[in-house]
UniProtKB/TrEMBL annotation:
Listed name of the protein: DNA-binding transcriptional activator GcvA
Keyword Transcription regulation: yes
GO biological process, one term: DNA-templated transcription
Lineage: Bacteria, Pseudomonadati, Pseudomonadota, Gammaproteobacteria, Pseudomonadales
Record-annotated HTH lysR-type domain positions: 5-62
Family to which the UniProt record says this protein belongs: Belongs to the LysR transcriptional regulatory family.
Entries under SUPFAM superfamilies matching the protein: Periplasmic binding protein-like II (SSF53850), Winged helix' DNA-binding domain (SSF46785)
GO MF term (any one): sequence-specific DNA binding
Length: 293
């Protein structure tokens, strides 16, 4: 005797027997009523029995159908209990967000206390990396990434554009006339970030200036260090304007000139479709958009 019938058909049978209706089972399972009927016929043919009496009043279980339903119902109930327990455990875990270190330190971290106040049950665990996210290989619920919003098979929420403008210590421009031009940056040391090597060349090109990175540039491992070097008076750094908002408000950094480059790239919140953490991701997504707005 074959011990395990087709599981999809078995699931359909459990739903029909429990609800005592083909139409209600179809609604619960999000399939057509004819699909439910096909699965029941498949199961009856497979087991060589008849599970339901069909008449004008509706359907009712045969004696063997009732016996079979009584036998499998506890198994389905245990599955429901186990699934609810697992879901509750997953829901209780922190939301795992993967970001660039500069984004975390300069934009996200100092805003998190506001989020904790607004959503005390929403816990966040931050990890940092530069490489594109791989949801299949990493235990991550969402990633904030720079790009054009084109990640195949993933959902993306636009946050803000990649806008660049040179910044420096206020003392560096003390005594200089207002209305400084882009070419005036060439009179000073330019601070480069290793992972954003093209920022200076692209900004220069957008200002109509010819420029190539010198043979031995003042290159630092990250934008975080580049901004710090500018604060310490070591030169001019090319800043992502959203990442230096606190320093500009505090006056520890100032814009060197007015010229700004907005690239055709932006920061996006990238997630998997139909994530089991979708309810918490929705809260986090809405909070991010509120902060940006």
């Amino acid at each position: 005797m074959r011990d395990i019938p087709p599981l999809n058909a078995l699931r359909v049978f459990e739903s029909v027997a429990r609800l005592k209706s083909f139409s209600k089972a179809a609604e619960e399972l999000h399939v057509s009523q004819s699909a439910v009927s096909r699965q029941i016929s498949l199961l009856e043919t497979y087991l060589e029995v008849q599970f339901f009496h069909r008449d004008r009043a509706g359907i009712r279980l045969t004696e063997v159908g009732q016996q079979y339903f009584d036998g499998i119902r506890p198994a389905f109930e245990r599955i429901v209990i186990a699934t609810r327990g697992l879901t509750a455990q997953v829901d209780d875990e922190p939301l795992r967000i993967r970001v660039y270190s500069t984004f975390a330190a300069r934009w996200l971290m100092h805003r998190l206390p506001k989020m904790q106040k607004a959503h005390p049950d929403l816990r966040i665990r931050i990890t940092t990396a530069v490489a594109p996210v791989d949801f299949g290989a990493e235990k991550v619920d969402a990633s904030i990434q720079l790009g054009r919003g084109e990640w195949e098979g993933l959902d993306s929420q636009f946050l803000f554009s990649d806008e660049m403008r040179p910044v420096c210590k206020p003392k560096l421009i003390a005594g200089m006339p207002t209305g400084r031009k882009p070419e005036d940056v060439l009179k000073h040391r330019l601070i480069h970030s290793y992972y954003r090597k093209q920022d200076w060349p692209e900004w220069m090109a957008s200002a109509g200036l010819e420029y190539s990175i010198e043979e031995d540039p003042f290159m630092l491992p990250s934008s975080l260090l580049a901004y710090q070097a500018a604060q310490d008076g070591l030169g001019i750094a090319m800043a992502q304007t959203r990442m230096v908002e606190q320093e500009l408000r505090a006056g520890t950094l100032v814009y060197f000139c007015e010229h700004t480059l907005t690239r055709d790239l932006g920061y996006y919140l990238v997630t998997q479709p139909d994530s089991p953490r979708e309810s918490k991701l929705t809260l986090f997504r809405q909070w991010l958009v509120e902060q940006i707005g």
